[in-house]
Write a structure and sequence with these properties.
By secondary structure, the protein is mainly alpha-helical. The chain has 15 helices and 4 strands.
Length: 281
């Protein structure tokens, strides 16, 4: 949602749900808030993206297009707006990240402050969470045994806020099914994916919001397409040498010249990695 409001909405799984949710909240006059602990995750994702800047600038458009399916939200969104020329500018990936206060060797706290400023300017409030309750953290840890401790702390803080609040109702939009399972029995909280939240609220009276098909179905169809490229995106992100990046660019450029219109970018990139793996075995 931050990316969509700051630059352009894109037709990714997350872009579809977030942009529709923003429109729905405006229609219902709902207040948008972000739990403060999640700023840490937003900033960490951004700093992780700086590791790929040098390689990103070497790999060529075919491979960049595959990064639409990246698990890193910054890489994914930038790949969408760059590929579709949605930004209205010719900004580099470094400039895109810098807008969010992200650059190499900057502190995590500084990035968090910048993202909070951007959210506040977009009328999205950042809300401080209470100290997490041990029993709630234990419940999340049991459902997510392989999760890193700091993420468990963040989620437990949000659940603690829900458990301590008695006079307010919340709509909790998240793609984390474990969290929705833990709060689904609370009568004051409706928790689901952003897309399903939109579909649910679109049936409510007083909202001038229409769509030709359900948003959850639309993002599911997009997700199926993205899953095909997700493995390839991880392989591209694993490139660490400029030699491999140049080799990938030369391969994809040559393949596109041989068949300019009838091949998907993901198929061409997949062929490169298949040949590389064959040479190494």
């Amino acid at each position: 949602m931050l990316f969509g409001l700051s630059f352009s909405n894109v037709k990714s799984r997350y872009g579809i749900g977030a942009s529709a949710l923003n429109e729905m909240c405006k229609a219902h006059k709902f207040k948008l808030v972000v739990p403060k602990p999640y700023l840490n995750e937003m900033a960490s994702h951004g700093l992780k993206a700086t590791e790929y800047i040098d390689i990103y600038n070497l790999i060529g458009d075919e491979s960049r297009s595959v990064l639409r399916a990246s698990g890193n939200s910054y890489l994914s969104h930038y790949a969408h707006i760059h590929d579709d020329k949605l930004s209205g500018t010719d900004m580099s990936i470094g400039e895109f990240l810098l807008y969010f206060g992200i650059e190499k060797r900057v502190s995590l706290a500084k990035v968090e402050r910048r993202i909070e400023q951007l959210l506040n300017a977009l009328d999205v409030e950042v809300v401080t969470m209470p100290r997490w309750k041990p029993e709630l953290r234990a419940a999340i840890s049991e459902l997510k045994p392989n999760e890193v401790p700091i993420i468990l702390d963040h989620d437990a803080s949000v659940l603690t806020m829900f458990s301590d609040t008695t006079d307010e109702g919340y709509i909790f939009a998240t793609w984390d099914k474990h969290l929705t399972d833990l709060v689904e029995l609370k009568s004051r909280i409706y928790a689901d994916t952003p897309s399903r939240v939109v579909d649910f609220l679109s049936m409510a009276n007083g909202a001038e919001f229409e769509t030709e098909q359900t948003v959850s179905l639309l993002d599911s169809l997009v997700y199926c397409d993205e899953k095909k490229a997700e493995v390839l995106a991880r392989k591209i992100e694993a490139i660490r040498s400029s030699e491999t990046a140049y080799e990938l660019q030369r391969f994809t450029d040559a393949a596109r010249k041989r068949s300019p219109d009838d091949r998907e970018s993901a198929d061409i990139v997949s062929e490169f990695f298949a040949e590389t793996e064959n040479r190494n075995t």
